[in-house]
Automatic annotation (TrEMBL):
The chain holds residues 1 to 229 of 360 of the full protein. This is ABC transporter related protein. Keywords: ATP-binding, Nucleotide-binding, Transport. Residues 4-229 form the ABC transporter domain. Transmembrane segments: none annotated. The keyword Membrane does not apply. The keyword Transport applies. GO terms for cellular component: ATP-binding cassette (ABC) transporter complex, substrate-binding subunit-containing. It comes from the Bacteria. GO terms for molecular function: ABC-type transporter activity; ATP binding; ATP hydrolysis activity.
Length: 229
């Protein structure tokens, strides 16, 4: 696994006829190999923009993003070894769960037999083995969220990005999914950033918590340190 380093990352949105928005204003962070960092902050502080820049879905205005010492800046999403499970990252309705999980692996050069084995393995780990032939429309939100997670890890990314992974779940589902997520991340050793606006979620899951405010890092610490403040 690899570390993830963000150095002075900036994003200014410029839309014609509207004032500029400095969404991210010099973001510095080192996520160690295998570490789960919780990125916490109020709505509009720049969390999603930061994730999208790491994933390559948004260009950086300045700064550098490197995975395992290699700069990702300028590379398209499919050339980055990054798995994303975003809150609004829709599953493809016509595809089965298995096909959704396998989606994206082809581009990375996996062969058919390899893809099938990988889908079965990931589905087993995330508790989706019984619903591989189902379509997204018939699934609960908890199941959909797990399929999105399975799709992200099926690519065997070096870095995993999770945007509000528990947000649409009820309290009971949230507890189960939180435990599964933690287990999966530890077992597979992914370098992970988990975005949330929920302090409890960040503190319960993360090795370290980064508090973001108005486009910058306001505080970084282990959950106990952040909790005491
Ligand atoms: P968060 O994920 O913390 O809610 P965002 O990264 O979505 O924050 O947004 C940070 C700021 O950038 C907000 O002021 C938001 O309105 C603005 N913003 C986000 N995306 C765009 C965009 N595509 N164009 C213009 N402004 C944007
Ligand atoms: P989040 O808080 O999860 O980032 P938002 O509802 O803020 O979600 O943003 C949803 C989408 O709208 C994103 O793709 C973002 O780029 C876009 N967006 C957010 N704020 C603005 C804005 N001020 N102008 C244009 N697009 C925006």
């Amino acid at each position: 696994m690899s570390d993830l380093v963000l150095r002075d990352v900036r994003k200014t949105y410029r839309t014609k006829g509207r004032p500029e928005v400095e969404a991210v204003r010099g973001f510095d962070l080192e996520v160690n190999s295998g570490e789960l960092v919780g990125l916490l902050g109020p709505s509009g502080c720049g969390k999603s923009t930061t994730l999208r820049m790491i994933a390559g879905l948004e260009d950086v205005t300045g700064g550098d993003i490197a995975v395992g010492g290699r700069s990702m800046v300028g590379l398209p999403p499919q050339k980055r070894s990054i798995g994303v499970a975003f809150e609004n990252y829709a599953l493809y309705p016509p595809l089965t769960v298995a096909e959704n999980i396998a989606f994206g692996m082809r581009a990375r050069g996996h062969r058919k037999a390899e893809r099938a084995a990988r889908v079965a393995d990931v589905a087993g780990r995330i508790g989706l083995s019984d619903i591989l032939d189902a379509h997204p429309a018939g699934l609960s939100s908890g199941q959909k969220q797990r399929v999105a997670l399975a799709r992200a890890v099926a690519r065997e990314p070096e870095v995993l990005l999770l945007d509000e992974p528990l947000s649409h779940l009820d309290a009971a589902q949230r507890d189960v999914t939180r435990r599964e997520l933690r287990h999966l991340q530890q077992e597979l050793g992914y370098t992970t950033i988990l975005v949330t606006h929920d302090q409890e979620e960040a503190l319960s899951l993360a090795d370290r918590v980064v508090v973001m405010n108005d486009g910058v890092v306001q505080q970084v610490g282990t959950p106990d340190v952040i909790y005491d403040d």
